[in-house]
Design brief:
The chain has 194 residues and is α/β, with parallel strands linked by helices. 46% of the residues lie in helices and 16% in strands. Strands 1-7-6-2-5-3-4 form a seven-stranded mixed sheet, sandwiched between helices. InterPro entries: AGP_acyltrans, Plipid/glycerol_acylTrfase. Keywords: Acyltransferase, Lipid biosynthesis, Lipid metabolism, Phospholipid biosynthesis, Phospholipid metabolism, Transferase.
Length: 194
C-alpha cells in the first residue's frame, strides 16, 4: 500500500506542482535510523517521503488521526503509528523501538505547534534513537505550505544533514540527551542557512 500510495501521490504532486529539489541525499545512511524533520504544514510529510524514496518511513503521528475506522486503516497501511502527544505512554517508545530493531526507518517531526511540544518531541526522538542505538538523520523542508502554493509551483526542497550518531545507550544521561536536543536544533538552523 505504501509503494502504491507513493507512486500515486508523487505522480499527482509532480504533475501539479513540479519537481522537488533533493539535497544531500547521499548523507542518508543505511537503515535503521530515525529521520527528524522541521514541521510547518502537512505538505512536509508528503515531500519528505518523496525526497527519501525508496526508503519507506514509518511516521509517528498524532493519535487523533486514528480516531475513525477508515483513517486508522489508511494510516496504518501507510506505515504510520499513533502517539498521544499530550500524555505519551510506553507505546510511544516501544513501537518505534520495535520498528528500528526490525531494520526500518522511523520518521518524527520534533517541532510541533506549541513550545512545550518542541522540547518533548525532540527529547522523544533523541531518546528513541539513543535506546535503539541508531543515528538521527536531520532534514528540513522549504516550500509550499498550502495546496494553493503547490499549484502555483512554488519552489520546494528537502535538505538532509549529516547523521547525528549518538553515544552508547549506557551513557544516555539526561545531560547527554539535552545536549543532543540542542545539537539537533542547531543543525536545523544551519541547514536552513545553506
Amino acid at each position: 500500500m505504501y509503494r502504491f500510495g507513493y507512486y500515486v501521490v508523487a505522480g499527482i504532486f509532480w504533475l501539479l506542482g513540479g519537481k522537488i529539489k533533493k539535497e544531500n541525499k547521499e548523507k542518508i545512511p543505511a537503515a535503521p535510523f530515525v529521520v527528524v524533520c522541521t514541521h510547518q504544514t502537512w505538505l512536509d510529510i508528503i515531500y519528505l517521503a518523496i525526497a527519501i524514496w525508496p526508503v519507506q518511513i514509518h511516521y509517528m503521528a498524532k493519535q487523533e488521526l486514528f480516531s475513525k475506522k477508515w483513517s486508522k486503516w489508511l494510516f496504518t497501511k501507510l506505515h504510520a503509528f499513533p502517539v498521544n502527544r499530550e500524555n505519551p505512554g510506553p507505546s510511544s517508545i516501544k513501537i518505534p523501538m520495535k520498528l528500528l530493531k526490525e531494520g526500518k526507518v522511523v520518521g518524527i517531526f520534533p517541532s510541533g505547534t506549541r513550545k512545550s511540544e518542541h522540547v518533548s518531541l525532540k527529547r522523544g526522538a533523541v531518546t528513541i534513537a539513543l535506546k535503539a542505538n541508531v543515528p538521527l538523520v536531520p532534514a528540513i523542508y522549504e516550500g509550499p505550505k498550502t495546496f494553493k502554493e503547490v499549484l502555483a509551483r512554488k519552489p520546494k526542497r528537502v535538505r538532509f544533514g549529516d547523521p547525528i550518531r549518538l553515544a552508547d545507550e549506557k551513557k544516555g544521561t539526561k545531560e547527554e540527551i539535552e545536549k543532543t536536543i540542542v545539537l539537533l536544533q542547531d543543525t536545523f538552523e544551519a541547514l536552513k542557512k545553506q
